[in-house]
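User:
Note these tokens:
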Amino acid sequence: MGERFLEWLRWAAQQVGDGYFGHSERVYCYELYHLIRVKMYLYERQNGPLREIFLHSELVKRIITREEAEFHEVFPLNEQRIPDFIFHNPNNFHNQVATMEVKVVTLYAANFYDDLRKLTDMVGRYQYQLAIFHCINNSRERLLGLLDEFEDEWANLNHGIIILLRENYHSRLQQTTLGAMIEEVIQGRNQP
């Protein structure tokens, strides 16, 4: 189901109209959510309803007790998380498909690292299959420069985080992983 969700997300992110690129994260996310739901609806019409799996936005993921964590075979979060999007079963830990953070403003190292840390936490502790960082209005070069700023922290991050980047309305969606971008930064340092 993870690859299917990623397919829906890529389609939706490429369909968001020009008028949504100049607004707040919330406005952009509303449109993105709507477009993902369109793809989900079309899928369900052909394949029947999705069972026990839901798309939620800004749902609070609370810190569970050690006893609850042991029962569900997960680890408690370090702190409460509120992902921009999650595709999961909210009642148990069986269908933890995807967790996603979205940024529409110019990124700075601190907020970029914070979102990557949140995604790492959700995968490592609550066993989400996919962690996605989706941003618009930022260039690939900017993200690489920001990654270069926190190299000592690379080991603390999940290198499998999927990066979906769309620089502006007129550009195509780019997909890579955090690990691939870190390798690109390292290679750039080694060139004369």
